[in-house]
Amino acid sequence: MIYLDYQATTPLAPEVAEAMRPWIEERFANPHSPSRWGREADAAVEVARNQVLKAIGVSGGSVAFTGSATEAINWALKGTAEKAPPGRNRIITVATEHAAVLDTCEWLTDHGIDLTILPVKPDGLLDLDDLERELDERVLMVAVMLVNNEIGVIQSVTEIARTAHQVGALMLCDAVQGFGRIDLPLDADLIAISAHKIHGPKGIGALWMRDGAEPAPLLHGGGQERQMRSGTLSPALCVGFGEAAQLAQKRATRDYDHVQKLWAAAVHALGPGWVINGSISHRYRGNLNLRRDGVDGARMMADLRDIAFSLGSACASGSGRPSHVLRALGLSYSQSRSSIRLGFGRYTTQKELVDACQRIAAVAKAQERLDA
Ligand code: PLP
């Protein structure tokens, strides 16, 4: 199997598995219990929290662990809406956001929120003039992702946050695909991240909150996570997240350079005839989303069962619906169907990537001949 689906999830780093092992096999204490074992587990959770905070690149604010980035995003949006001052009931977001943002915002429209979804330009980037035109004193929050999970384009979140702040709105950034890979927009007020996209375990995410921008509590109960998100934390998952974050920080330049080389090798191996979806200049290059006239992505996937790649996005793939992101770029239904997403990173070798791309190109040519 050649794994080219790094935007869906990433392989667990061996260092992470090693760090987690004692907390799975032996050290089972509840980190919220006052026993000596409990205090040791709590200390390990706090080390992990600091590792995550350091990898985000901030000294202030706080990190609360959640079960996923989806949970962190739901919390940020719903909890902020719950605390909204009178008169501030608008949320502005973008058509290419992840479903965790779009569906939560839609849900909020039944709970008093007035929602504006901005379009993107054909390269997938938000036009800041469009945002400025929409901003007014009624805007509670602007939610824009850093790196798009389907097409890899990087939005100017720092500028977007500064613009939002001019009218007193808060900024939520879904940084799931950018965390551990590129610098985070530290002007945001709330940042959602996930461990399994950075070679950490599944089942844990986090919400970073600027002091004073904390949403209303999410889960009520034992009062964990500073009374905001009750529930027993898993030391194993927290330690795994912390280790993955620290590793990503340490290896940032090496991983980044590796991905740049892989991108160039993949583009070369695919050969001519492909169009890259989304901006090439404002892009995380571990994502190669591209299309070719006459190609049927689903048929290609059936022909290449030993290569794990994606059609549009992992979430949209099973649904049979064309990707909402590719539609937002203005692609037709048939252009969306002829698009595939290759995602690669730390553990992808150039040889396997080139091999996969050459086979993808060969299948594309065979499909063209068959249909001619
Ligand atoms: N946001 C983006 C951009 C993502 O790519 C994903 C995962 O696919 C999520 C949010 C949700 O993350 P999680 O799997 O931790 O819920």
Describe the protein's architecture and organization.
There is one protein chain. The protein is an alpha/beta fold. The chain is built from 14 helices and 12 strands. The protein has a 7-stranded mixed beta sheet, with helices on both faces. A 3-stranded antiparallel beta sheet has the order 9-10-12. β5, α6 and β6 form a beta-alpha-beta unit. The protein starts with a strand and ends with a helix. The model has no long low-confidence stretch (mean pLDDT 96). Pyridoxal-5'-phosphate binds next to α3.
Quick recap of the structure?
With 372 residues, the protein is of the alpha/beta class. The protein has two domains: 2-9 and 252-371, Aspartate Aminotransferase, domain 1; 14-250, Type I PLP-dependent aspartate aminotransferase-like (Major domain) (Aspartate Aminotransferase, domain 2, 3-Layer(aba) Sandwich). The chain is built from 14 helices and twelve strands.
Task: Please give a handful of descriptors for the protein shown.
alpha/beta, single chain, 14 helices, Aspartate Aminotransferase, domain 2, Aspartate Aminotransferase, domain 1, globular, binds pyridoxal-5'-phosphate
Number of strands: 12
**What profile does the largest beta sheet have?**
7 strands, mixed
* Strand ordering within the main sheet: 2-8-7-6-5-3-4
* Uncertain ranges: none
Number of helix segments? Answer: 14
User: Can you tell me the CATH topology of the largest domain?
Assistant: Aspartate Aminotransferase, domain 2
* Overall CATH architecture of the largest domain: 3-Layer(aba) Sandwich
Looking at the structure, what is the overall shape?
globular
Give me the secondary-structure category: alpha/beta
Supply the number of structural domains: 2
Share of residues in strands? 5-15%
> What is the CA-CA span between the terminal residues?
31 Å
CATH top level label of the largest domain: Alpha Beta
Helix content: 40-55%
Regarding quaternary structure, what we see is single chain
